[in-house]
Amino acid sequence: MSPGLMETRRTTSPDPARNISPMSNRRLPNASLLVLAIGTHLSAQGGPPLPPPGVPPVPVPPGNPITVSKTLLGKALFWDEQLSATNTISCGTCHVPGNGGSDPRSALFGSVHPGFDGLFATPDDIRGSRGVANSEADGDWIATQFFGLAEQVTSRKAPTMINAAYAPLLFWDGRAGPNFVDPVTSTVVLQQGALEAQAALPPVNAVEMGHLGTTWTELAAKIGALEPLALAEDVPTDLQNFVRGKTYAELFQTAFGTPGVSASRTLLAIGTYERTLISGQSAWDDFLAGNQAALTQQQQQGRAIFFGQGNCGACHGGQLLTNNTFRNIGVRPIQEDLGRGAITGNPADNGRFKVPSLRNVALRAPYFHNGGAANLTAVVDFYNRGGDFFVNQDPLIQPLGLTLQQRQALVAFLQAFTDPRVANETAPFDRPSLYSESNHVPVALGAPTPGPGGFVPRMWATEPPVLGNPNLTLAVDRGTGGAPAFLIVDTSAIAAGWNLFGAQLYFALTPAVSIFPMGALSGSGPGNGSTSRSFATPLDAGLQGQTLTAQWVIAAGSAGNLLSATSAAQLTLY
Fold this sequence. Notes:
This protein is of the alpha+beta class. It is built from 14 helices and 19 strands. Strands 9, 12, 15, 17, 18 and 19 form a 6-stranded antiparallel β-sheet that branches. The chain starts with 5 loop residues before the first strand and ends with a strand.
């Protein structure tokens, strides 16, 4: 769902009864004549006619008209990390406008899934999105085979939400849509409701946002009791004015006209917001509107290759720069991920994935469904050699024989699809800052002390230390399974640390220290032990700014030491 030539008109006050439709209004007065002339010229040379600038009108289901208040409610929900089990992940965490609507963390250390073979650092690794630690409803964390107590990573890269409003089916495999079915009642709420259908899945997925067994009934009840965007900062003015001093229950009544927070309404609001994220104001659109100077000479050369020898326009043509079909281009062997074939059951669909729009593609590194191409140069090189794996590969994918200069020109042309409003995160792509981006995230202090076998215990303190948090979890993994563990929390720290039976400790042992005996770590043997402890932080303004130092100590050492320990974590209550 990307914004472009589509802008949402605003009213001075939220009105659930008033429908707001995105509309295209940026074409130059004689744009249609210019496009016709350019298209005729290209046709005379044997090339395809160029599309008009911008994007077509957004398809809006009659059962979910766009209104100002519903858009703002959906925007709040989309960016609210409180919808996740750990209060650390929002929809927007993995769909950042400045990264073209994808996840900038996919390129970073810690965002790798081991892939089909279950082994890290092998060719089938996937650059996905970090979600939540594996947890139960009570906040206890449970170690997983691949990630321990670290944030789990998805097995595909996050696609963009920008311009997703035009797609009849969503996700890389098209499993969401075309209809939106209420996840609680199982009744069809909307036809042509792929956005709502897609939005229903991540919040209850135990890798992406939810705990094990999360239901939408539970989640809707949680939303109704939340202070909207309580963890966010730098909230855009229109959104801040909408949510200030209100509960979600009040916002839902404003948006829908009647009381009630439900799964269906939550998803209708998120879908409405996403239909305003329409992108169609790029240098390419300026060129199509008649501004020949909008593209550099190198980009003009790349355009000729894109629609000519490269044959990119066969799948990435038109105003949307996608035909929304599913293709196997040969990124990885089909047995690693069946893609569309796993949904349809048709062997011909094995290895096929949704053709993404190329609008804002230069912002979305890394690329492909597995994040396997680090940059656009790698993408163009992939197509130039005709892909890498050929079983069930689409016949459109053939070696191109492009020179280095041609490939560089093609990369330059792809950069012309960037909408500066997306890149700069200006309306309608503006957003709050997230807790996960703030200085409220706990910080590490000191170094860990290894245990038997040289395994280094890891401290996990990622959840917001906000006053009134009913479930703040501190956890440890990579300890010695079966060994007794203790969690120590103190109000002061010794930065240089002090030694106890071989372990370097950082809490100050003040009179306010709390020691929590946790019993034996789960698991068996060195490196396999883990446990967690959840707390409710009091809603006491007098504790604002108090820094706590927490550290795990394990009664299993190495090299003659009796103890091992994690590094410490410092949490400042706010």
